[in-house]
Amino acid sequence: MTISGLKAEGIQWNLSELYTGPDDPRIEADLAAARRQAAAFAQVYRGKIASGQLDGPALARALAEYEALSELEYRPSFYASLFFAADTQNQKAQQLIQRTREASTETANRLVFFALELIALEAAQLAPLLVAPEMAEYHHYLEVLRRFKPHTLGEKEEQILNQKHLTSASAFEQLYEELSGSLRFKLTVDGEERELSDGEIIALLHHPDRDLRERALTTFLETHANHSLVLTSIFNNILLDHKIDCELRHYDDVVIPTHLANEIAPETVEAMMQAVERHYPLAQEYFQLKARLLGLEKLKNTDLYAPIEAEVEEIPFPQAQQVILSAFGRFNEQFAALAADFFNRRWIDAEVRAGKRGGAFCAAFSPRHHPYILCSYNGTSRDISTVAHELGHGIHYSLSRCQKLLNYDAPLVLAETASVFAEIVLTRHLLAETKSLAARRALLCGLLEEMYGTVFRQTALTRFEMEAHQKRKDGKLGADEICRLWLQEQEKLFKASVEMIPAYKWGWTYISHFIHSRFYCYSYSFGELLTLALFQRYLDEGETFVPGYMRLLERGGSQRPEHALAQLGIDINQPEFWDQGFRVIEGFLADLKAVVDTA
Ligand SMILES: [Zn+2]
Question: Which contiguous run of DSSP H or E holds residue 433?
């Protein structure tokens, strides 16, 4: 018997408020209007900004026009990307993506001069313009836009670096992609020799068979190790290329460009990472509990994601909707009401369909239009969490619709402030409602494993990456040296609680962030721990915390993270602030201990 709603049948979004379909003539009309207006905009403003011909109010008018134009330009490609995500095999969708992307690039190119001139302005020229009251809402945007100015070289040098980038870092990134993409993994599964893709073999880490999990990760890593000559060379060159870049651009340290991009002071990141490292014993405590749940003496690192319960109760979508809304309602009425809009007004596409994009996302293109959510709902408790997570993003976007377009998107480290919060609100609600010990164990393990993977593991990854960049300054690193650095950071995290399988020394070879998005991993730890600390404040302060929290979400991307949080009375430069986040983890750990002990 199939229960209706287990695959969220019929839960499709309604995109007609954007366009009626891929053939809607308004798409072409908008693309053409954007092109035309961009040309007119360039005619009026090109050369006027850098040369200081505009006063404050005139510059504010130019920025407002620029926002209106950007919105017009985003709308067709935003629609195309949603239409495509919902139906990737649809030829019209593919063509529409292509068409809107080309048109949008053309329009964007005509507008590039504007940002460049704003960056080119000297600080002394800009200061008097900022005094105009009309400019007040653009201060932060200009600060963000101009933050790399002191590290930008002359036009000629930038051009040369850009061109040479193709055969330096870009070339190694490309080689890494092609090599990892070409790897196939031979593994015997159920007595049958199979050739697996990376996604398939990594998924086996969640398999109930312990031996299979260990063979899967060993095969995965040893296959990478067979290419250690190339992978070591790629990693070394990526490190060296960045070192040279930092020297040319006068950065005191190799991590500074990432901190600048994240609008976070280096000391703040260091304080956060040290707080995580001080709390590594919490992760170790979890691993010991999990070993007991699995009936093992000690975990191997291939057991970290092993399933603990065989039975899973499936929940139809309408019930998930109801559970989420009552969980959110328990936290705050407005939170629940904003989430309800997504269900009632068809802003969510949750149905499982062939050809739909995998994963889940919440997307928005302008504060003048509501956001949309896409996911594939399969009825598991993981899926309910995903819906709650994306609704958190949706609520965040909805609240920041009071901002201007240029202040709409929250900075990276604040981007998960509502989504992770929403997940915890949901889990606490479910724990309060669920009597079954098995279900409570599964809920708690799911949550704690997510926190381990985001807070603890990502910090250990970042430490390794920082170490590797430092060591590379003294010369080329051999594969052995990189493996040693990797194991050293992993050992700090696991201590005696986890036995690492021998092949794990090659763990660094498959983390593509190290190649593509340097030092990105810490922003996962930062964002999650920040949200946990906010949640602890809520537990401590109750109702009085909520209005300030909602205002933080309303601020979107209008302020530096540090300033936005200061208005909640939070100082992220105080190490004690970060400790609050761990109290949430300690609380869930204590809950888990209680259910393990009664098992
Ligand atoms: Zn998210």
Answer: helix 419-433
